[in-house]
Amino acid sequence: MTAIWQRQVDLEAINARLQRGAAGVFGITVTALLPDALEATMPVEARHLQPMGALHGGVSVVLAETLGTLGCILALPEDRRAVGLEVNANHMASVAPGQVVTALCRPLHLGRTTQVWQTEIRRADGKLACVSRLTCAVIEGSIT
């Protein structure tokens, strides 16, 4: 299988950059770059919970959008960048605090002007907790 990535990839540098933004607030860490997917983990802590005590759906969307956008950027040449157009999520199972969720993000479409990325978020027991899809526009210009 040929890797889809068009940019130089250094997980340590990626994670350092992520820690400076929203991903850092939520403790998102990219753990693997596969030939056609990104994998990440996120602890589920008190700051991640909705009022009933389970993982907040919006936090799952932050995880999915972080990975989808990153995947899109890495799959583009240096003279292109990605901007989000739409994100959705379906929540299938609750996640209790104290667990670490694992997310796997793969492209569904790698087009010239749009990309679509799907993220599956799983609980520690492997049960699917959320599926999210992100659509990005591909535009000219480098990422700063």
TrEMBL record:
What GO terms fall under cellular component here? cytosol
Keywords in alphabetical order = Hydrolase
Q: Which GO molecular-function terms appear in the entry?
A: 1,4-dihydroxy-2-naphthoyl-CoA thioesterase activity
The keyword Transmembrane is assigned to this record = no
Keyword Hydrolase present in the record's keywords: the answer is: yes
Under CDD domains, the record lists: PaaI_thioesterase
Gene3D superfamilies, per this entry?
Hotdog Thioesterase (3.10.129.10)
Coiled-coil segments on the chain, per record: none
What highest taxon heads this organism's lineage? Bacteria
What family does this chain come from, according to its entry? Belongs to the thioesterase PaaI family.
Q: Which InterPro entries match?
A: HotDog_dom_sf (IPR029069), PAAI_dom (IPR003736), Thioestr_dom (IPR006683)
Under the heading SUPFAM superfamilies, the entry gives: Thioesterase/thiol ester dehydrase-isomerase
Q: Provide the Thioesterase domain boundaries.
A: 52-130
Give the protein's recorded name: Esterase
Please give the organism.
Answer: Falsiroseomonas bella
